[in-house]
Fold this protein.
Amino acid sequence: MSVAPLKETGLPLTRRLVIGVDEAGRGPLAGPVVAGAVVLCKPRPAGLDDSKKLSGKRRGELEAVIKRRCRWAVGVVEVEEIDRLNIFGATMLAMTRAVAALCAALGEEPHEVLIDGNMTPMGRTADWRWQARAIVGGDALEPSISAASIIAKEHRDRLMRDLAEAHPHYGWERNAGYGTAQHLEALRLHGPTPHHRRSFAPVAQLEMAL
């Protein structure tokens, strides 16, 4: 399991414990998939929204506030597990790891876990044990999911910037591993790295051609 440190705040939690969950990194050709899990503080941070709708500067500001005032954790599933499980299974596992890490730090179980999308890990990942509800568009509708989307995206973007230092040809510091024209051209010229997802078609087709 790979999780980020959880920030202790000392602030009282809401009486009904609800965890918001979202993921980042389902679509890229390279890098891990990351899930964030957040219990919001009161008053909740102002300006929460779907992380994709926020500027990088605003996401960074909100991430700092969430980490300082709320309770949070992340779960990370690396490329090897993505290729073994498939990206859907890996995403469900990342969510499970994030919620498990947050529950361990809180020392209690949530009444409900709210998840962005139309499916939850319930019945799809062996270690999932919590009541869960999927909300389509939840990263824009439900503040705890919005906060989780910010935590997940910022965490994954940092991981990809770190990987870009060792593999500078692919532009990961800008494209976060997505299949941009620059990334695809670098794949053709330099081949895949250990951080590329071999189960994804552009990478698999390239390897077959080599």
